Each structure stands twice: as C-alpha cells, then as structure tokens.
Amino acid sequence: MENNGSLTLLKGHFTPDEAREVLINLFQAKVSFHQMKHFSSLERTGREDHVAKERILELKESMRRIREMVAQAEASGMMMSISSTVEVDIVDAQERTVQEGTASK
Fold this sequence. Notes:
There is one protein chain. By secondary structure, the protein is α+β, with helices and mostly antiparallel strands. 59% of the residues lie in helices and 20% in strands. The protein is built from 3 helices and 2 strands, in the order βααβα. The chain starts with a strand and ends in a 7-residue tail after the last helix. The model has no long low-confidence stretch (mean pLDDT 91).
C-alpha cells in the first residue's frame, strides 16, 4: 500500500451556476468542519481554537472571491474551468503536534 497519493477532486468546465454550487458547497463543508472543531475545543477545554477561527476567516474570504469570479463569468457569458488535486501523505502521528497549525487546513 502506498503512503501517499494524488487524488483528483475537480476537473472540468462548469457553468457559473454549477461552479458556484460545487465550490461554495466544498468551502462551506470546510467552514462547518472548523466551526465544529472550535466549538469542540471550547466545550472540552474552555479555550478557543485560534487556528480554526483563522481558517474560518480565510475560507469565508475565499467564498467571497468565488462569488466574484462566478459573477464575472456570468456577466461575460463564459464557462469556468476548475481543477483541484488533493495530495495525501501518511505521516507519523508526532508530526501533527509539530504542524498543528496546518494539520487540518
């Protein structure tokens, strides 16, 4: 079994409506993940998860930019080409503590 891999998440041409739906849903799922992570930290430890809070802001900014790009494509009657690859590596569990700020982005 391989310890890493490249997985194609998105690849193709989309209408602006399709692009909006796919991308906003993906980004919203990540926002929800980080919101639950933050809430869980508050409940378990009484402390905020600052990494999750920062990531939520970043993701919301990305969603704003997506809406702008979709509006631009709609206004010009264009399609949108989207490609996204996910890189997965299996790493030693101790590396997470070293990279805690980037482990769940």
